[in-house]
Amino acid sequence: MNMPFILDTLRQILAVLPTTLALFALSVPIGCFFALVLVWMRMSSNRILSGFSRSYIFVFRGTPLLIQMFLIFYGLAQFQFFHLPPFWWILVNRFATAVLALALCTAAYSAEIFRGGLLAVPSKEIEAARAIGMSGFKLLRRIIAPIALRQALPAYSTEVVLMLKSTSLAGLIGIVEMTGVAQKLGRRSLEDVGVLALAGLIYLVVSFIIILLMGLLERKLSPHLGVMPPRAQTPRTIVG
Amino acid sequence: MAASSEIALSVKNIHKRFGQHEVLKGISVDAHEGDVISILGASGSGKSTFLRCINLLETPDEGEIIVAGEKLEMRRNKTGHLAPANGKQVDRIRSELGMVFQSFNLWSHMTILQNLIEGPVHVLGRPRAECIEEAEALLQRVGLAERRNYYPSHMSGGQQQRAAIARALAMKPKVMLFDEPTSALDPELVGEVLRVMRSLAEEGRTMLVVTHEMSFARNVSNRVLFLHKGEVEADGSPDELFKDMKSERFRQFVSGQQH
Amino acid sequence: MDFIDTLINTVSLLGFGKTGWGLYLLAAAGMTIAVTLAAIVIGAIVGSFVAWAKLSSNLIARAAGNAYTVVLRGTPELLIIYMVFFGKVVDAVGNTLQYLGLGDGTIINNFLAGALGVGLISAAYQAEVFRGAFTAIAKGEIEAARAIGMPRLLRFRRIIVPQILRFAIPGLGNVWQLSVKDSALISITGLVEIMNAANKAVGSTKQSFLFYTVGACLYLVLTSLSNQVFNAGERHVAKSFRRPVGM
């Protein structure tokens, strides 16, 4: 493992970093959206909606992501039904299918995290809002959602980092991403552990950056937990 | 409560610093057998720290501790601090000193019977059957016989503290140390614990009690130690301190305690 | 009668007869349980050391412990399993055992690689569980043990360990679930556990939807069963530890 080799390997792995990041950058927001839908269904008074949501979460949290991915990529293609648009637009494309599978999986975990955030909103603060006449969507948007978001953010940050790691599974359905490339390079050069470790290093650096960014987000959303702002200047008044 | 002339516990010149702050500035006490010494003082006067130095839950920076004639060997370690020289001696001496804590500190994963026999069986190595017999007698003594298989979380504070006292007694200690035994109890539960402590005093046990209970200090103990800012401000019989009021600071302290 | 045909076909595929994959899949489920158990045991041993390091007063130990958790929780599981599988360590064990005539070296290698990979990952999570459980022990109870003259090792064995185990049950339940799911990645070693069994069945019959669904169901059974077991364990232990009365 000499320097030229290390640099060359890094170059090759970093060449597919964009793919990994693309998988990540697409699946996180899509998964987040699905999760919000799931939470809304889960908290609904409609038995069918909440039942579906609970089953969905149960299944997607109780099975490995790998089998979910294979099921969606290989399994669905068996049925003519899925050869029709709009399904086929996604399934015919490996990348899109991977993003879909990742998003569907994170939706379940994120939904539970958001639900936890909602349950952590102090009922007293909701009461206070109701007491001044706030209700419905306004109550949700101005009081409940912001508080729930802040409560859920730490756990959601962990989930987001996990999503980065999950992109490595896309390699097993044929997408050229960092883990797959590292494995092939390792086998070819017989310096398996070294090459894989280099890839690991890149993942660590990227996750570190993600954690920093999420931390910044957390701080931005919680000004009441941070440093006290300087006292506002009161205008001097002329007395007597 | 006649005290014999044997010295059960001798503590000389204990100094203790926390960082820059010197909490104990040279405290000495000689406890004769049968002495029941109440240690009083305001918060921050160092009374709990002093008690915890005796069984080395805190390590004093200066001083000597002699239990039943045996001196605890200390040495200076690399940083210049005092440390016990012989770990086995520390364990042995601790087993001769019984301690009762403010927050009871019963082991929550054991029933109170198991709590009582834990020390005798696993530290003293005595036969289990014997220890169980003695433990049941002790539980009877403190009025908890029917609860022997209860877990601490199933009992009230007063019951837990009585069980903790029984646990300390099970080790057959030479001296008993009480660190504010009733401070964490609801007022109506304080009495049952004080009653047990009084009966221990009446049977001639040597006790050092850090407390805020003036009635205990005045009526049950035969000596009162009043600490002020880490020093012994007054040391005498309850009459000397409470009736004669020789110390001005003590008078202020007592009047501040009235409620 | 197309639907009936499909139904009969499905049942025979899953059945235990000559064309049936049922037995094969169930055996694979057994392998999943076995390799996950092995992984958890490895993880418990390594995790205890890491937890001890993180709680240590020694700066280097703490840094090492923290480094372990950061690295193993931040690196993709697949990458770690590749590293263990392609690394030379595990091969040595398997080849020795094969040389001694104690079994098929390849299978042992794959099993060990899988168990070690998932085990090292779970160790990072188990370390956090143990560390949290230790800090949850009431300091006063440890003090009471010191005050009674209990020497260190005895204190650890009689007071600290039982309490750590009690507090760790919920966390360990999560780690077990996590490891069962991670075990699907062991399929890349060639070991026949659920994922790989499904792969092989699909490869042979082309019935991808059926067998991946069955595989998923097997995992679901495993995760929900273990959930029940851990919840029962938690309840059993909680019987002794209800909220204290009137303090």
Distance between the terminal alpha carbons of chain C, to the nearest Å?
73 Å
Biggest sheet overview of chain C: none
**What number is the mean pLDDT of chain A?**
87
Average pLDDT metric of chain C? 86
Quickly give the structural class of chain A. mainly alpha
CATH superfamily of chain A: MetI-like
Measured by residues with Cβ under 8 Å of the partner chain's Cβ, the largest interface is: A-C, 41 and 38 residues
CATH architectural name of chain A? Orthogonal Bundle
Structural class of chain C: mainly alpha
Count of strand segments of chain C = 0
Task: Give a written overview of the molecule.
The complex is a heterotrimer of chains A (240), B (259) and C (247). Chain A contains 10 helices and no strands. Chain A has 240 residues and is mostly helical. The model of chain A has no long low-confidence stretch (mean pLDDT 87). Chain B is of the alpha/beta class. In chain B, the strands form 3 sheets. In chain B, strands 8-9-10-3-11-12 form a 6-stranded mixed beta sheet, with helices on both faces. The longest helix of chain C is centred in the first third of the chain and has 34 residues, at 22-55. With 247 residues, chain C is mainly alpha-helical. Chain C has one domain (26-231): MetI-like (MetI-like fold, Orthogonal Bundle). The chains are: A mainly alpha (240), B alpha/beta (259), C mainly alpha (247). At the A-C interface, α3, α4, α8, α9 and α10 of A face α3, α4, α8, α9 and α10 of C.
What is the secondary structure topology, with strand pairs?
The complex is a heterotrimer of chains A (240), B (259) and C (247).
Chain A: H1 3-15, H2 17-42, H3 47-62, H4 65-75, H5 87-91, H6 94-119, H7 123-131, H8 136-166, H9 178-189, H10 192-221
Chain B: E1 7-18, E2 21-32, E3 36-41, H1 47-54, E4 62-67, E5 70-71, E6 74-76, E7 82-84, H2 87-96, E8 97-100, H3 112-123, H4 128-141, H5 157-170, E9 175-179, H6 187-202, E10 206-210, H7 214-219, E11 223-228, E12 231-236, H8 238-243, H9 248-257
Parallel strand pairs in B: 3-10, 3-11, 8-9, 9-10
Antiparallel strand pairs in B: 1-2, 1-4, 4-5, 6-7, 11-12
Helix pairs in contact in B: 3-4, 3-5, 4-5, 5-6
Chain C: H1 2-14, H2 22-55, H3 59-74, H4 77-86, H5 89-99, H6 105-135, H7 139-147, H8 152-182, H9 194-205, H10 208-238
